[in-house]
Design a protein that fits this description.
Elements: H1 4-22, E1 28-33, E2 38-44, E3 49-55, H2 59-64, H3 71-87, E4 94-96, H4 105-115
Parallel strand pairs: 1-4
Antiparallel strand pairs: 1-2, 2-3
Length: 120
């Protein structure tokens, strides 16, 4: 049987393949979470560029957050990445949760990004 890391990679690649098929050329809002922080990027796969990015390590957020690994931090990062994406002229995205379940911090980030003006 495969190692858990291999299964995680397969899940992520399967999801990204499905997103590419259904995206219609829209940029993707990619989420990465670690044990201490959460990161989000709006990526244009066609030109392979990052259009907007935010994380719980950003100076403005780091000072106001208790920790970078809770739902409050995820919501703050979601609002910030939505604000930066809107400033870059992006309002329609495809949500890429990676290999993570749509639950907890990932869901909090997605909900905050929707409230910030991103549509997905």
């Amino acid at each position: 049987m495969s190692a858990p890391q291999d299964l995680k990679v397969r899940r992520r690649e399967r999801l990204r393949y499905q997103l590419r098929q259904k995206s219609g050329g829209r940029p993707r809002l990619s989420v990465f979470r670690s044990g201490r922080h959460i990161y989000a990027q709006v990526i244009d796969d066609a030109s392979r560029t990052t259009l907007a990015a935010a994380s719980s390590l950003d100076k403005g957020l780091r000072e106001s957050l208790k920790t970078g690994a809770d739902k409050d931090a995820a919501a703050a990062v979601g609002k910030l990445v939505a604000e930066r994406a809107m400033a870059a002229g992006v309002s329609l995205v495809v949500f890429d949760r990676g290999a993570y379940l749509y639950h907890g911090r990932v869901k909090a980030l997605a909900d905050a990004a929707r409230e910030g003006g991103l549509a997905f």
